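Key result, reporting period 2: structure in, sequence out.
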């Protein structure tokens, strides 16, 4: 028989449905029919047994017979439960904090732990009768633990709350009136905020703010608003030049954030006073109404116009009397908006003085705009005039003009002058109705300005507006005659030329022709005088030609002119004749009139002439040379016939010198010269074949009578070529090659050029087309890899040269360029390709047509056919 635990319900008199009082209730489990029953016992009837059952909350006598007896029966205790957070029944934490949840139970058979909160409802099942703990918990809400057993059930609850984080982005600013505005970012979950700031202890908190007492070593006073629903607050009227420290807390049902957002420091700076108004004017009409005007001032909130009237006169209506200053009463308007004010009823024919101040929170401008003296009633106007205007400048560039002005008799005026390109300076200060002055006017003109002032102090015009101004121009008269006038004539054409002169806009060339002739076509006949016809025309240029008659004599002049008229005199006369037969002369050296040669070079001279009866020649040197030629001393030369040729070998004593060879022919009336200038270079002769120069090298190539280098400055991906240190106009270059006395250049677009006397001449080829070079030809093959050609040899296979130097050990009878790569084939039909340093055996190249151009495709097909024929021809040999 199993022993059972019995729960003692305690003492007390309880009535049962069968009318038997009892003082003990025992619960037992009867293993015969698995039913629960109650064992009742009462003191005098302890040996009596009576069983009841509990059904629907009512006790009934059991109607069955126990099959066995209990060996013993003991009482059963109810369960106990304990639950805490960090040892407390409730806990308040901040965002990011964690805690430990602790529990234990006794007398329990099963337990449950239920969480309800912001992380969602959850249930756990702790073991019965155990002590447990969960650390690092961050759940916010309530926990309830319930345990049960045969003795009953028990529960315990705890709660965890979280205060909000502090506000972010706390800022503070102060406007010109001392209003401090504090702003912060909204906090999720906060129901309100607590802004606060510190003021010095001697200062009270503003209205609506709570004084929480002193802090920071009793030097400051903290002011707060404990429950504020916005994220911005303004504290009005704070003192200037004082720093305030501001903060803000957030709040929810758990309380205030553990720390405040901030601090944000702000200092209210007293505003500076505004500048005075500009463009201040003060005038008055004949009826006594004054008008003051000015331009607005940035930062001003209002203005204070002032009029000083002589004592004995009242202020205008609406103006405030401000007291006596000297012999004047001060009248003003305070807090005036706008940029103009009027005052009526002012005295006539009295000098009044106007000012205006600008104002803001910092105070009044210092100084005021003004003073402006003015008068009411009929007044003499202030005027400026000049006579003459413009005035005529002399050859030194100045002229004189009389400046006159008028002003009221009692008004002091200052007259200022500013020359073109100069600084203004005072010219006169006077009081009275009128005055005159005769200044010098320079070219470009002078500007005259008149101001109304109280005194002759030049600083008085600062900020004033001029009454009027006048520009007096200086202009030149007719220009001087042209200089360096020349007149000559070939067999039928006259040429008149001259140098330009200042201020001239046009010229009038004149030719006096014999009475028996007529004026040249397009020239004006100005009449006959002394056996000549006066012929003239106009020209904006400095030279002109005219058709005339061979063998006749003429007289030439030329005038200059502009809007003021013609020059007082003409340049001329020059007597000239047109040649009966044109005399010509031509001398060249190496086919040019200006050549550069090296020591050891041969110069080939040739000379021709026509219509001449004599011929002479000479030469000069720039400075004394080592050959015995002296600078400035002309020496005879061999060109003393009407045509011929000769040679000269340049000697070492001529190095670095320049020689001028002159050939002159003529007849009884005319001499005609022709010259060749020979520059002998001090450098060596042409660079040898194969000299190659890249932009990264520091060398040079001496070729074609010049020294060639690359510049250090890049341009469009390449470099400039310098000829004798000067750019030749070609840019973007990457390779310069001296080859067989010629210069070649390749640019960054893979284009080749050859230097000629006229400049760089592009060589035609394309990298996307095949270019064939048989060994029988003497031409070049050009591509990115260089300049290719065959050297001389008696065999079928000839040596290959690249940029003038042997290319590897290549011996071939064909070179071909396909797609920018050089291929060679020898007489054994073996193919090779150039890899930059040598020849590499390769398969026979093929040509693929990738262009859509019909012409290009046809060309490539033709080259393909040529290659095929060459292969067949060589194979059949």
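The corresponding designed sequence is given below.
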């Amino acid at each position: 028989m199993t022993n059972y635990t019995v729960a003692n319900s305690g003492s007390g008199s309880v009535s049962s449905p069968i009318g038997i009082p009892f003082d003990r209730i025992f619960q037992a489990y009867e293993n015969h029919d698995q039913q629960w029953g109650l064992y009742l016992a009462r003191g005098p009837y302890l040996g009596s047994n009576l069983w009841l059952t509990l059904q629907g909350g009512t006790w009934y006598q059991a109607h069955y017979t126990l099959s066995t007896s209990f060996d013993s029966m003991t009482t059963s205790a109810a369960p106990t439960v304990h639950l805490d957070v960090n040892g407390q029944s409730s806990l308040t934490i901040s965002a990011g904090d964690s805690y430990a949840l602790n529990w234990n139970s006794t007398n329990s058979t099963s337990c449950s732990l239920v969480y309800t909160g912001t992380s969602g409802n959850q249930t756990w099942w702790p073991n019965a009768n155990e002590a447990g703990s969960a650390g690092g918990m961050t759940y916010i809400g309530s926990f309830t633990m319930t345990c049960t057993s045969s003795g009953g059930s028990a529960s315990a609850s705890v709660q965890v709350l979280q205060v909000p984080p502090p506000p972010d982005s706390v800022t503070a600013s102060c406007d010109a009136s001392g209003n401090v505005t504090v702003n912060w970012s909204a906090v999720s979950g906060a129901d309100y905020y607590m802004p606060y700031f510190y003021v010095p202890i001697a200062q009270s908190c503003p209205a609506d703010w709570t004084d929480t007492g002193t802090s920071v070593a009793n030097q400051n006073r903290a002011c707060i608003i404990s429950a504020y629903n916005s994220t911005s607050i303004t504290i009005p009227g704070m003192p200037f030049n004082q720093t305030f420290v501001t903060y803000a807390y957030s709040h929810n049902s758990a309380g205030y954030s553990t720390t405040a957002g901030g601090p944000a420091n702000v200092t209210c700076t007293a505003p500076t006073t505004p500048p005075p108004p500009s463009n201040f004017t003060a005038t008055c009409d004949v009826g006594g109404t004054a008008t003051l005007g000015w331009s607005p001032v940035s930062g001003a909130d209002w203005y204070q116009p002032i009029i000083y009237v002589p004592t004995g006169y009242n202020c205008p209506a609406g103006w405030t009397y401000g007291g006596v200053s000297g012999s004047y009463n001060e009248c003003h308007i305070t807090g005036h908006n706008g940029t103009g004010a009027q005052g009526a009823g002012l005295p006539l024919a009295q000098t009044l003085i106007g000012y205006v101040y600008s104002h803001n929170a910092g105070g009044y401008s210092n100084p005021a705009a003004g003073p402006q003296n003015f008068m009411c009633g009929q007044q003499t106007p202030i005027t400026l005039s000049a006579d003459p205007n413009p005035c005529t400048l002399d050859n030194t560039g100045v002229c004189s003009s009389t400046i006159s002005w008028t002003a009221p008799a009692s008004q002091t005026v200052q007259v200022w002058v500013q020359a073109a390109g100069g600084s203004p300076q005072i010219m006169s200060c006077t009081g009275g109705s009128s005055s005159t002055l005769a200044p010098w006017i320079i070219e470009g003109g002078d500007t005259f300005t008149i101001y109304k002032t109280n005194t002759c102090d030049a600083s008085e015009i600062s900020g004033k507006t001029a009454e009027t101004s006048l520009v007096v121009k200086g202009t030149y008269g007719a220009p001087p005659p042209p200089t360096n006038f020349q007149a000559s004539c070939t067999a039928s054409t006259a040429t008149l030329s001259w140098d330009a002169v200042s201020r001239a806009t046009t010229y009038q060339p004149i030719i006096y022709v014999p009475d028996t002739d007529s004026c040249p076509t397009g020239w004006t006949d100005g009449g006959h005088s002394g056996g000549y016809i006066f012929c003239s025309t106009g020209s904006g240029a400095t030279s002109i030609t005219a058709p005339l008659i061979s063998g006749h004599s003429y007289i030439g002049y030329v005038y200059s002119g502009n809007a003021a008229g013609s020059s007082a005199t003409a340049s001329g006369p020059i007597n000239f004749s047109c040649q009966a037969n044109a005399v010509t002369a031509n001398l060249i050296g190496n086919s040019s009139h200006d050549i550069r040669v090296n020591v050891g070079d041969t110069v080939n001279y040739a000379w021709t002439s026509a219509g001449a009866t004599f011929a002479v020649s000479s030469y000069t040197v720039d400075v004394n040379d080592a050959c015995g030629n002296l600078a400035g001393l002309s020496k005879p030369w061999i060109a003393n016939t009407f045509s011929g040729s000769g040679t000269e070998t340049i000697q070492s004593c001529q190095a670095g010198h320049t020689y001028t060879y002159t050939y002159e022919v003529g007849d009884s009336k005319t001499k005609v010269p022709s010259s060749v200038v020979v520059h002998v270079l001090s450098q060596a002769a042409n660079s040898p074949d194969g000299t190659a120069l890249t932009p990264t090298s520091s060398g040079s190539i001496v070729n074609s009578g010049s020294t060639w280098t690359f510049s250090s400055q890049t341009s469009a991906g390449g470099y400039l070529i310098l000829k004798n240190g000067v750019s030749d106009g070609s840019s973007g270059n990457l390779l310069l090659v001296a080859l067989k006395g010629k210069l070649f250049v390749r640019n960054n677009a893979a284009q080749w050029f050859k230097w000629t006397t006229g400049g760089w001449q592009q060589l035609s080829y394309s990298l996307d087309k095949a270019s064939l070079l048989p060994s029988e030809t003497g031409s070049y093959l050009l591509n990115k890899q260089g300049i290719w050609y065959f050297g001389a040899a008696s065999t079928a296979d000839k040596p290959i040269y690249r940029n003038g130097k042997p290319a590897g050990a290549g011996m071939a009878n064909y070179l071909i360029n396909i797609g920018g790569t050089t291929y060679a084939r020898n007489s054994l039909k073996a193919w090779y390709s150039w890899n930059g340093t040598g020849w590499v055996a390769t398969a026979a190249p093929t040509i693929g047509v990738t262009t859509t151009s019909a012409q290009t495709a046809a060309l490539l097909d033709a080259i393909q056919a040529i290659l095929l024929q060459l292969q067949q021809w060589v194979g059949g040999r």
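Residues 1-49, 54-75, 849-858, 872-877 have pLDDT under 50 and may be disordered. The chain is about 5% helix and 50% strand. This case is discussed further under Risks and Mitigation.
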